[in-house]
Amino acid sequence: MAVDYTPGELMVAVAAREIRDGEVVFVGMRLPLLAFCLARATHAPNAVGLFENGIVRDSPALAFLVTMSDGPNVAGALWCTEMREIMGLLQSGRVDLGFLGGAQIDRFGNLNTSYVGPPGRQTRLPGSGGGADIAGLSRRHVVIMAHERRRFVERVDYVTSPGFGEGGDWRRRVGLPGGGPAAVITTLGLFRFDPETREMVLASTHPGVTVEEVREETGWPLACAPSVTVTPPPTGEELAVVRRFDPDGFWTRDRG
Amino acid sequence: MSVGAVLNKVLPLAEAVRRHVPDGAAVVLGTALEALIPFAVAHELIRQERRDLALVGPISDLCFDQLIAAGCARRVVAAWVGNVQHGSGYGFRRAVEQGLPHPIEVEDHSNFTLALGLEAAALGVPYLPTRTLLGSDILARNPRLRRERCPFTGAPLVLVPALAPDAAILHVQRADAEGNCQAWGATGVSAAAAKASRIVIVVCEELVEAAVIRSDPNRTLVPGFLVTAVVHLPWGAHPSPVQGHYNRDHAVYRDYHQRSARPEDLLAWLREWVRDPGDHAGYLEKLGRQRLEALRPRSRRLAAPVDYGC
Fold first, then answer.
1. Where would I find the beta strands (DSSP E) of A146-198?
2. What ipTM was predicted for this assembly?
3. Parallel, antiparallel, or unpaired: how do β-strands B167-175 and B181-182 relate?
4. Could you tell me the pTM of the whole model?
5. Which residues does chain A have within 8 Å of residue B110's beta carbon, measured at their own beta carbons?
6. Residue B262 CA neighbour count, 13 Å, CB half
Protein backbone atom coordinates (compact mmCIF):
# COMPACT_ATOMS: atom_id res chain seq x y z
CA MET A 1 0.00 0.00 0.00
CA ALA A 2 1.44 3.36 -0.98
CA VAL A 3 1.52 5.92 1.80
CA ASP A 4 1.82 9.63 1.06
CA TYR A 5 4.65 11.40 2.81
CA THR A 6 6.79 14.50 2.37
CA PRO A 7 10.59 14.57 1.85
CA GLY A 8 10.87 15.93 5.38
CA GLU A 9 8.91 13.04 6.84
CA LEU A 10 11.05 10.54 4.94
CA MET A 11 14.26 12.16 6.19
CA VAL A 12 12.97 12.06 9.77
CA ALA A 13 12.16 8.36 9.44
CA VAL A 14 15.59 7.58 7.96
CA ALA A 15 17.30 9.64 10.68
CA ALA A 16 15.36 7.87 13.43
CA ARG A 17 16.62 4.50 12.16
CA GLU A 18 20.18 5.70 12.83
CA ILE A 19 19.42 5.85 16.57
CA ARG A 20 20.04 2.56 18.39
CA ASP A 21 18.21 1.65 21.54
CA GLY A 22 19.93 2.86 24.70
CA GLU A 23 22.10 5.42 22.93
CA VAL A 24 22.89 8.89 24.21
CA VAL A 25 21.97 11.29 21.44
CA PHE A 26 22.89 14.95 21.00
CA VAL A 27 19.62 16.00 19.48
CA GLY A 28 19.65 19.58 18.27
CA MET A 29 16.65 21.06 16.53
CA ARG A 30 14.27 20.72 13.63
CA LEU A 31 14.25 17.32 11.88
CA PRO A 32 16.65 15.61 14.35
CA LEU A 33 14.35 16.56 17.20
CA LEU A 34 11.51 14.77 15.46
CA ALA A 35 13.79 11.83 14.64
CA PHE A 36 14.59 11.46 18.32
CA CYS A 37 10.88 11.52 19.22
CA LEU A 38 10.19 8.91 16.53
CA ALA A 39 13.03 6.60 17.59
CA ARG A 40 11.95 6.80 21.23
CA ALA A 41 8.39 5.97 20.30
CA THR A 42 9.35 2.99 18.13
CA HIS A 43 12.58 0.98 18.20
CA ALA A 44 14.70 2.93 20.73
CA PRO A 45 12.59 3.40 23.87
CA ASN A 46 15.72 3.74 26.01
CA ALA A 47 17.50 6.45 24.02
CA VAL A 48 18.45 9.57 25.99
CA GLY A 49 18.44 13.01 24.37
CA LEU A 50 20.85 15.87 25.17
CA PHE A 51 20.33 19.50 24.22
CA GLU A 52 23.12 22.06 24.27
CA ASN A 53 21.14 24.62 26.27
CA GLY A 54 21.44 22.15 29.17
CA ILE A 55 18.43 19.83 28.88
CA VAL A 56 18.58 16.05 29.21
CA ARG A 57 15.40 14.07 28.67
CA ASP A 58 14.40 10.48 28.08
CA SER A 59 10.90 11.20 26.87
CA PRO A 60 9.60 13.22 23.95
CA ALA A 61 8.70 16.82 24.72
CA LEU A 62 5.18 17.38 26.04
CA ALA A 63 4.10 19.32 22.97
CA PHE A 64 5.30 20.61 19.61
CA LEU A 65 8.59 22.52 19.82
CA VAL A 66 9.92 25.36 17.74
CA THR A 67 13.11 25.61 19.81
CA MET A 68 14.85 23.31 22.27
CA SER A 69 14.29 25.90 25.01
CA ASP A 70 10.50 25.94 24.65
CA GLY A 71 8.58 25.15 27.83
CA PRO A 72 7.40 21.67 26.79
CA ASN A 73 11.04 20.53 26.41
CA VAL A 74 11.88 21.66 29.95
CA ALA A 75 8.82 20.23 31.72
CA GLY A 76 9.34 16.56 32.47
CA ALA A 77 13.07 16.62 31.65
CA LEU A 78 15.54 14.47 33.59
CA TRP A 79 18.00 17.29 34.07
CA CYS A 80 18.09 21.01 33.39
CA THR A 81 21.62 22.26 33.74
CA GLU A 82 24.28 24.36 32.06
CA MET A 83 25.78 24.08 28.60
CA ARG A 84 29.20 23.12 29.97
CA GLU A 85 27.74 19.93 31.47
CA ILE A 86 26.35 18.84 28.11
CA MET A 87 29.52 19.79 26.23
CA GLY A 88 31.54 17.98 28.89
CA LEU A 89 29.57 14.79 28.26
CA LEU A 90 30.23 15.26 24.56
CA GLN A 91 33.96 15.87 24.95
CA SER A 92 34.45 12.96 27.37
CA GLY A 93 33.05 10.51 24.83
CA ARG A 94 29.68 9.85 26.42
CA VAL A 95 27.61 10.88 23.42
CA ASP A 96 27.04 8.06 20.93
CA LEU A 97 25.38 10.02 18.18
CA GLY A 98 24.93 13.67 17.26
CA PHE A 99 22.82 15.25 14.54
CA LEU A 100 23.76 18.19 12.34
CA GLY A 101 22.33 20.25 9.53
CA GLY A 102 24.31 22.20 7.00
CA ALA A 103 24.12 24.64 4.13
CA GLN A 104 27.07 23.20 2.20
CA ILE A 105 28.81 19.81 2.36
CA ASP A 106 31.73 18.26 0.48
CA ARG A 107 32.83 14.77 -0.57
CA PHE A 108 34.51 14.14 2.80
CA GLY A 109 31.49 15.25 4.79
CA ASN A 110 32.85 18.62 5.93
CA LEU A 111 30.04 21.08 6.64
CA ASN A 112 29.85 24.81 6.13
CA THR A 113 27.29 26.90 7.99
CA SER A 114 29.38 30.09 8.15
CA TYR A 115 30.55 31.74 4.92
CA VAL A 116 29.50 30.73 1.39
CA GLY A 117 31.02 32.13 -1.78
CA PRO A 118 34.32 33.64 -2.89
CA PRO A 119 36.12 36.16 -0.63
CA GLY A 120 34.67 39.63 -1.04
CA ARG A 121 31.30 38.32 -2.22
CA GLN A 122 30.49 35.98 0.61
CA THR A 123 27.09 35.22 2.01
CA ARG A 124 27.15 35.16 5.78
CA LEU A 125 25.28 32.24 7.30
CA PRO A 126 24.39 32.09 11.01
CA GLY A 127 27.49 30.08 12.07
CA SER A 128 28.32 26.98 14.06
CA GLY A 129 26.16 27.10 17.14
CA GLY A 130 27.01 23.72 18.65
CA GLY A 131 27.49 22.13 15.22
CA ALA A 132 31.28 22.15 15.19
CA ASP A 133 31.32 20.66 18.69
CA ILE A 134 28.97 17.83 17.73
CA ALA A 135 30.97 17.09 14.56
CA GLY A 136 34.27 17.09 16.41
CA LEU A 137 33.39 15.29 19.60
CA SER A 138 30.46 12.87 19.28
CA ARG A 139 31.34 9.23 18.72
CA ARG A 140 29.59 9.41 15.38
CA HIS A 141 27.33 11.95 13.74
CA VAL A 142 24.66 12.11 11.08
CA VAL A 143 24.02 15.03 8.74
CA ILE A 144 20.57 15.93 7.45
CA MET A 145 20.24 18.43 4.61
CA ALA A 146 18.62 19.37 1.33
CA HIS A 147 20.35 17.89 -1.73
CA GLU A 148 21.17 20.53 -4.33
CA ARG A 149 24.21 20.92 -6.55
CA ARG A 150 25.08 24.31 -5.04
CA ARG A 151 25.13 22.66 -1.59
CA PHE A 152 27.01 19.48 -2.55
CA VAL A 153 30.40 20.85 -3.55
CA GLU A 154 33.85 19.34 -4.16
CA ARG A 155 35.30 21.40 -1.30
CA VAL A 156 33.35 23.60 1.13
CA ASP A 157 34.25 27.30 1.18
CA TYR A 158 34.75 27.15 4.94
CA VAL A 159 34.92 24.15 7.26
CA THR A 160 32.61 24.99 10.15
CA SER A 161 32.01 21.42 11.31
CA PRO A 162 34.71 18.96 10.30
CA GLY A 163 33.79 15.67 8.67
CA PHE A 164 36.74 13.61 7.40
CA GLY A 165 38.71 16.70 6.34
CA GLU A 166 40.86 15.67 3.39
CA GLY A 167 39.98 11.99 3.81
CA GLY A 168 41.89 8.98 5.11
CA ASP A 169 43.18 9.37 8.66
CA TRP A 170 42.82 13.19 8.68
CA ARG A 171 40.71 13.26 11.82
CA ARG A 172 43.30 11.33 13.80
CA ARG A 173 46.07 13.55 12.47
CA VAL A 174 44.39 16.79 13.54
CA GLY A 175 43.50 15.28 16.92
CA LEU A 176 39.72 15.06 16.73
CA PRO A 177 38.44 12.50 19.23
CA GLY A 178 35.03 11.80 17.66
CA GLY A 179 34.45 9.22 14.95
CA GLY A 180 33.16 11.55 12.24
CA PRO A 181 30.09 11.33 10.01
CA ALA A 182 28.38 7.93 9.80
CA ALA A 183 25.68 8.99 7.38
CA VAL A 184 24.33 11.88 5.34
CA ILE A 185 20.58 11.91 4.85
CA THR A 186 19.37 14.16 2.06
CA THR A 187 16.19 14.85 0.14
CA LEU A 188 17.43 12.39 -2.51
CA GLY A 189 19.19 9.57 -0.72
CA LEU A 190 21.24 8.08 2.09
CA PHE A 191 25.04 8.21 2.02
CA ARG A 192 27.75 6.41 4.00
CA PHE A 193 31.52 6.89 4.01
CA ASP A 194 34.19 4.59 2.64
CA PRO A 195 36.05 3.10 5.63
CA GLU A 196 39.47 3.69 3.98
CA THR A 197 39.26 6.84 1.86
CA ARG A 198 36.47 8.37 3.95
CA GLU A 199 34.76 9.58 0.82
CA MET A 200 30.97 9.90 0.72
CA VAL A 201 29.28 6.93 -0.97
CA LEU A 202 25.69 6.69 -2.17
CA ALA A 203 24.07 3.82 -0.24
CA SER A 204 20.41 4.18 -1.20
CA THR A 205 18.20 6.45 -3.25
CA HIS A 206 14.84 7.52 -1.91
CA PRO A 207 11.79 6.02 -3.65
CA GLY A 208 11.32 7.53 -7.10
CA VAL A 209 14.85 9.01 -7.29
CA THR A 210 17.42 7.67 -9.76
CA VAL A 211 21.17 7.44 -9.25
CA GLU A 212 21.53 9.76 -12.25
CA GLU A 213 19.41 12.42 -10.55
CA VAL A 214 21.59 12.19 -7.44
CA ARG A 215 24.73 12.56 -9.59
CA GLU A 216 23.28 15.64 -11.29
CA GLU A 217 22.74 17.32 -7.94
CA THR A 218 26.23 16.46 -6.66
CA GLY A 219 29.21 18.66 -7.47
CA TRP A 220 31.87 15.94 -7.66
CA PRO A 221 32.09 12.49 -9.30
CA LEU A 222 29.93 10.60 -6.85
CA ALA A 223 30.98 7.17 -5.62
CA CYS A 224 28.23 4.55 -5.34
CA ALA A 225 27.95 1.43 -3.23
CA PRO A 226 28.30 -1.87 -5.19
CA SER A 227 24.54 -2.25 -5.02
CA VAL A 228 22.63 0.96 -4.41
CA THR A 229 19.33 0.08 -2.78
CA VAL A 230 16.07 1.99 -2.42
CA THR A 231 15.47 3.66 0.94
CA PRO A 232 12.53 1.98 2.69
CA PRO A 233 9.78 4.61 2.87
CA PRO A 234 8.30 5.59 6.22
CA THR A 235 5.77 3.12 7.54
CA GLY A 236 2.27 4.14 8.54
CA GLU A 237 3.32 3.85 12.17
CA GLU A 238 6.36 6.07 11.66
CA LEU A 239 4.29 8.71 9.88
CA ALA A 240 1.67 8.70 12.61
CA VAL A 241 4.35 9.41 15.22
CA VAL A 242 6.01 12.16 13.18
CA ARG A 243 2.64 13.84 12.63
CA ARG A 244 1.87 13.60 16.32
CA PHE A 245 5.01 15.59 17.13
CA ASP A 246 4.72 17.98 14.18
CA PRO A 247 0.95 18.25 13.88
CA ASP A 248 0.90 21.22 11.53
CA GLY A 249 3.88 20.08 9.50
CA PHE A 250 5.94 23.07 10.60
CA TRP A 251 9.22 21.16 10.17
CA THR A 252 8.25 18.38 7.78
CA ARG A 253 5.96 19.85 5.12
CA ASP A 254 7.22 21.69 2.06
CA ARG A 255 10.77 21.70 3.31
CA GLY A 256 12.15 19.24 0.81
CA MET B 1 18.24 36.23 63.01
CA SER B 2 20.27 39.06 61.60
CA VAL B 3 21.42 38.77 57.99
CA GLY B 4 23.10 42.16 57.78
CA ALA B 5 21.90 45.34 56.19
CA VAL B 6 19.90 44.69 53.04
CA LEU B 7 21.24 46.47 50.00
CA ASN B 8 18.57 47.58 47.63
CA LYS B 9 19.88 47.35 44.08
CA VAL B 10 16.52 47.73 42.37
CA LEU B 11 16.55 50.21 39.49
CA PRO B 12 14.14 51.08 36.70
CA LEU B 13 15.11 49.53 33.35
CA ALA B 14 16.16 52.79 31.68
CA GLU B 15 18.28 53.82 34.66
CA ALA B 16 20.04 50.46 34.95
CA VAL B 17 20.91 50.50 31.26
CA ARG B 18 21.99 54.17 31.30
CA ARG B 19 24.18 53.75 34.34
CA HIS B 20 25.77 50.38 33.67
CA VAL B 21 26.00 49.80 29.91
CA PRO B 22 27.92 52.69 28.34
CA ASP B 23 28.90 53.12 24.70
CA GLY B 24 31.67 50.71 23.79
CA ALA B 25 30.85 48.16 26.49
CA ALA B 26 31.23 44.42 25.90
CA VAL B 27 27.87 42.93 26.90
CA VAL B 28 26.98 39.27 27.24
CA LEU B 29 23.28 38.46 26.87
CA GLY B 30 21.06 35.65 25.64
CA THR B 31 23.01 33.31 27.89
CA ALA B 32 20.26 30.68 28.26
CA LEU B 33 20.03 30.30 24.47
CA GLU B 34 16.44 30.55 23.18
CA ALA B 35 14.84 31.12 26.60
CA LEU B 36 15.21 33.99 29.10
CA ILE B 37 16.57 36.40 26.47
CA PRO B 38 16.60 39.93 27.95
CA PHE B 39 14.80 41.51 24.99
CA ALA B 40 13.55 44.43 27.09
CA VAL B 41 17.15 45.43 27.85
CA ALA B 42 18.13 45.07 24.18
CA HIS B 43 15.20 47.27 23.20
CA GLU B 44 16.18 49.85 25.81
CA LEU B 45 19.74 49.88 24.42
CA ILE B 46 18.24 50.60 21.01
CA ARG B 47 16.02 53.39 22.40
CA GLN B 48 18.98 54.95 24.18
CA GLU B 49 20.95 54.73 20.92
CA ARG B 50 23.87 52.96 22.52
CA ARG B 51 26.84 52.68 20.14
CA ASP B 52 29.94 50.52 19.59
CA LEU B 53 28.84 47.66 21.82
CA ALA B 54 30.58 44.31 21.64
CA LEU B 55 27.81 41.70 21.76
CA VAL B 56 28.85 38.43 23.37
CA GLY B 57 26.68 35.31 23.46
CA PRO B 58 26.28 31.77 22.16
CA ILE B 59 23.27 31.98 19.83
CA SER B 60 21.33 35.11 20.79
CA ASP B 61 18.34 34.39 18.50
CA LEU B 62 16.82 37.63 17.17
CA CYS B 63 18.27 39.78 19.90
CA PHE B 64 21.68 40.39 18.30
CA ASP B 65 20.15 40.84 14.87
CA GLN B 66 18.01 43.69 16.19
CA LEU B 67 20.89 45.39 18.03
CA ILE B 68 23.11 45.11 14.95
CA ALA B 69 20.41 46.42 12.62
CA ALA B 70 19.81 49.36 14.94
CA GLY B 71 23.48 50.31 14.74
CA CYS B 72 24.31 49.57 18.39
CA ALA B 73 27.07 47.02 17.75
CA ARG B 74 30.64 47.31 16.53
CA ARG B 75 31.72 43.79 17.29
CA VAL B 76 30.05 40.39 17.72
CA VAL B 77 31.58 37.48 19.62
CA ALA B 78 29.23 34.55 19.07
CA ALA B 79 28.71 31.01 17.82
CA TRP B 80 25.54 31.69 15.85
CA VAL B 81 23.60 34.81 14.90
CA GLY B 82 20.21 34.58 13.24
CA ASN B 83 16.59 33.66 13.81
CA VAL B 84 16.33 30.19 15.35
CA GLN B 85 12.84 29.67 13.97
CA HIS B 86 13.57 30.83 10.42
CA GLY B 87 17.34 30.76 9.84
CA SER B 88 19.06 33.85 8.55
CA GLY B 89 19.20 37.11 10.45
CA TYR B 90 19.04 39.78 7.80
CA GLY B 91 20.39 42.56 10.01
CA PHE B 92 23.51 40.52 10.77
CA ARG B 93 23.93 39.52 7.13
CA ARG B 94 23.72 43.10 5.88
CA ALA B 95 26.27 44.27 8.43
CA VAL B 96 28.76 41.54 7.51
CA GLU B 97 28.16 41.42 3.76
CA GLN B 98 27.53 45.12 2.98
CA GLY B 99 28.72 47.02 6.04
CA LEU B 100 25.21 48.34 6.74
CA PRO B 101 24.37 50.34 8.79
CA HIS B 102 28.12 50.13 9.43
CA PRO B 103 30.76 47.40 9.30
CA ILE B 104 31.06 45.04 12.27
CA GLU B 105 33.84 42.74 13.38
CA VAL B 106 32.87 39.13 13.99
CA GLU B 107 34.78 36.77 16.23
CA ASP B 108 33.47 33.31 15.38
CA HIS B 109 33.18 30.61 18.00
CA SER B 110 31.35 27.36 18.55
CA ASN B 111 28.95 27.19 21.47
CA PHE B 112 31.53 25.21 23.43
CA THR B 113 34.44 27.62 22.92
CA LEU B 114 32.23 30.62 23.74
CA ALA B 115 31.22 28.84 26.95
CA LEU B 116 34.84 27.94 27.74
CA GLY B 117 36.00 31.54 27.27
CA LEU B 118 33.43 32.74 29.80
CA GLU B 119 34.24 29.80 32.07
CA ALA B 120 37.95 30.65 32.03
CA ALA B 121 37.20 34.23 33.08
CA ALA B 122 34.80 32.95 35.74
CA LEU B 123 37.51 30.65 37.10
CA GLY B 124 40.18 33.33 36.99
CA VAL B 125 42.51 31.44 34.62
CA PRO B 126 43.93 32.83 31.35
CA TYR B 127 42.54 30.05 29.15
CA LEU B 128 40.92 26.63 29.12
CA PRO B 129 41.92 23.77 26.82
CA THR B 130 39.53 21.77 24.66
CA ARG B 131 39.55 19.25 21.85
CA THR B 132 36.70 20.86 19.93
CA LEU B 133 37.37 22.89 16.76
CA LEU B 134 40.52 20.95 15.80
CA GLY B 135 40.48 20.92 11.98
CA SER B 136 37.77 23.59 11.82
CA ASP B 137 38.20 26.91 10.00
CA ILE B 138 36.77 28.59 13.10
CA LEU B 139 40.11 27.75 14.72
CA ALA B 140 42.09 28.65 11.59
CA ARG B 141 40.46 32.09 11.22
CA ASN B 142 40.01 33.19 14.83
CA PRO B 143 43.42 34.51 15.93
CA ARG B 144 42.39 34.44 19.59
CA LEU B 145 42.05 30.64 19.55
CA ARG B 146 45.35 28.80 19.63
CA ARG B 147 46.34 25.27 18.74
CA GLU B 148 48.98 23.92 21.12
CA ARG B 149 50.29 20.58 22.31
CA CYS B 150 49.19 19.17 25.64
CA PRO B 151 52.24 19.47 27.96
CA PHE B 152 51.41 16.07 29.47
CA THR B 153 50.50 13.91 26.47
CA GLY B 154 51.59 15.86 23.42
CA ALA B 155 48.07 15.64 21.97
CA PRO B 156 46.77 18.63 19.99
CA LEU B 157 44.54 21.00 21.96
CA VAL B 158 42.75 24.26 21.36
CA LEU B 159 43.35 26.95 23.98
CA VAL B 160 40.39 29.26 24.49
CA PRO B 161 41.41 32.55 26.14
CA ALA B 162 39.37 34.00 28.98
CA LEU B 163 36.48 36.10 27.78
CA ALA B 164 35.55 38.77 30.34
CA PRO B 165 32.72 41.05 29.21
CA ASP B 166 32.12 44.40 30.92
CA ALA B 167 28.51 43.56 31.66
CA ALA B 168 26.25 40.51 31.82
CA ILE B 169 22.49 40.83 31.45
CA LEU B 170 20.54 37.90 32.89
CA HIS B 171 16.80 37.41 32.77
CA VAL B 172 15.52 35.19 35.60
CA GLN B 173 12.26 34.08 37.15
CA ARG B 174 12.91 35.61 40.54
CA ALA B 175 15.37 37.75 42.50
CA ASP B 176 15.46 39.64 45.75
CA ALA B 177 16.43 43.30 46.13
CA GLU B 178 20.08 42.40 46.69
CA GLY B 179 20.25 40.50 43.43
CA ASN B 180 20.26 36.96 44.78
CA CYS B 181 18.55 35.32 41.85
CA GLN B 182 17.04 32.02 40.82
CA ALA B 183 16.28 30.62 37.40
CA TRP B 184 14.92 27.29 36.25
CA GLY B 185 14.86 25.49 32.98
CA ALA B 186 18.14 25.18 31.08
CA THR B 187 20.53 28.02 31.91
CA GLY B 188 23.14 27.65 29.15
CA VAL B 189 26.13 29.84 30.01
CA SER B 190 24.32 32.20 32.40
CA ALA B 191 26.25 31.49 35.60
CA ALA B 192 29.63 31.60 33.85
CA ALA B 193 28.68 34.85 32.08
CA ALA B 194 27.78 36.49 35.39
CA LYS B 195 30.98 35.38 37.10
CA ALA B 196 33.06 36.49 34.10
CA SER B 197 31.63 40.03 34.01
CA ARG B 198 32.42 43.10 36.11
CA ILE B 199 28.82 44.36 36.00
CA VAL B 200 25.79 42.06 36.34
CA ILE B 201 22.27 43.29 35.68
CA VAL B 202 19.54 40.89 36.71
CA VAL B 203 16.08 41.34 35.20
CA CYS B 204 13.38 39.40 37.05
CA GLU B 205 9.78 38.41 36.52
CA GLU B 206 9.20 38.43 40.29
CA LEU B 207 10.88 40.53 42.95
CA VAL B 208 10.71 38.38 46.08
CA GLU B 209 11.65 38.57 49.73
CA ALA B 210 15.10 37.30 50.64
CA ALA B 211 13.43 34.46 52.55
CA VAL B 212 12.08 33.01 49.29
CA ILE B 213 15.59 32.70 47.88
CA ARG B 214 16.92 31.25 51.13
CA SER B 215 14.14 28.65 51.17
CA ASP B 216 15.78 26.90 48.19
CA PRO B 217 19.48 27.81 47.93
CA ASN B 218 20.29 25.06 45.41
CA ARG B 219 18.21 26.92 42.85
CA THR B 220 20.28 30.11 43.08
CA LEU B 221 21.89 31.03 39.77
CA VAL B 222 24.11 33.82 41.10
CA PRO B 223 24.41 35.20 44.63
CA GLY B 224 23.65 38.87 45.12
CA PHE B 225 27.18 39.99 45.96
CA LEU B 226 28.05 39.48 42.29
CA VAL B 227 25.05 41.49 41.11
CA THR B 228 25.17 45.21 40.37
CA ALA B 229 21.53 46.05 39.65
CA VAL B 230 18.12 44.41 39.74
CA VAL B 231 15.33 45.36 37.35
CA HIS B 232 11.86 44.10 38.17
CA LEU B 233 10.22 43.72 34.79
CA PRO B 234 7.50 41.16 34.16
CA TRP B 235 7.40 40.08 30.48
CA GLY B 236 10.92 41.47 30.07
CA ALA B 237 12.04 38.41 28.07
CA HIS B 238 9.09 38.45 25.64
CA PRO B 239 8.98 37.03 22.94
CA SER B 240 11.39 34.41 24.37
CA PRO B 241 9.94 31.94 26.90
CA VAL B 242 10.23 32.06 30.69
CA GLN B 243 9.38 28.70 32.26
CA GLY B 244 6.35 28.93 34.53
CA HIS B 245 5.54 32.48 33.38
CA TYR B 246 4.99 32.55 29.63
CA ASN B 247 5.59 30.52 26.49
CA ARG B 248 7.51 31.63 23.43
CA ASP B 249 5.62 34.03 21.16
CA HIS B 250 6.54 32.41 17.84
CA ALA B 251 4.53 34.96 15.85
CA VAL B 252 7.02 37.73 16.68
CA TYR B 253 9.91 35.76 15.18
CA ARG B 254 7.91 35.07 12.03
CA ASP B 255 6.79 38.67 11.71
CA TYR B 256 10.35 39.97 12.19
CA HIS B 257 11.70 37.47 9.65
CA GLN B 258 9.16 38.50 7.06
CA ARG B 259 9.73 42.17 7.68
CA SER B 260 13.51 42.28 7.91
CA ALA B 261 14.60 41.12 4.44
CA ARG B 262 14.68 44.77 3.26
CA PRO B 263 16.52 47.29 5.45
CA GLU B 264 13.75 49.89 5.31
CA ASP B 265 11.22 47.30 6.49
CA LEU B 266 13.48 46.23 9.34
CA LEU B 267 13.90 49.84 10.49
CA ALA B 268 10.13 50.27 10.29
CA TRP B 269 9.74 47.16 12.47
CA LEU B 270 12.15 48.58 15.05
CA ARG B 271 10.31 51.90 14.96
CA GLU B 272 6.95 50.23 15.42
CA TRP B 273 7.93 47.75 18.14
CA VAL B 274 10.88 49.41 19.92
CA ARG B 275 11.03 53.18 19.49
CA ASP B 276 7.41 54.28 19.14
CA PRO B 277 6.14 52.36 22.19
CA GLY B 278 8.58 54.53 24.21
CA ASP B 279 9.23 52.04 26.99
CA HIS B 280 8.51 48.48 28.07
CA ALA B 281 5.04 49.41 29.35
CA GLY B 282 4.21 50.87 25.95
CA TYR B 283 5.48 47.68 24.29
CA LEU B 284 3.22 45.52 26.46
CA GLU B 285 0.29 47.82 25.80
CA LYS B 286 0.87 47.45 22.08
CA LEU B 287 0.97 43.66 22.41
CA GLY B 288 -2.31 43.77 24.31
CA ARG B 289 -3.56 41.83 27.30
CA GLN B 290 -5.27 39.19 25.23
CA ARG B 291 -2.14 38.23 23.32
CA LEU B 292 -0.06 38.11 26.50
CA GLU B 293 -2.62 36.02 28.37
CA ALA B 294 -2.64 33.50 25.52
CA LEU B 295 1.07 32.92 26.19
CA ARG B 296 0.51 31.94 29.82
CA PRO B 297 1.20 28.28 30.69
CA ARG B 298 -1.90 26.15 30.25
CA SER B 299 -1.26 24.29 33.46
CA ARG B 300 0.94 24.53 36.51
CA ARG B 301 3.67 21.95 37.13
CA LEU B 302 4.95 22.50 40.64
CA ALA B 303 8.15 20.77 41.73
CA ALA B 304 7.95 18.50 44.74
CA PRO B 305 9.19 20.48 47.75
CA VAL B 306 12.58 19.57 49.16
CA ASP B 307 13.35 19.56 52.88
CA TYR B 308 16.32 21.62 54.05
CA GLY B 309 15.57 20.72 57.66
CA CYS B 310 18.47 20.25 60.04
1. 181-186, 189-193
2. 0.96
3. antiparallel
4. 0.97
5. 128-133
6. 3
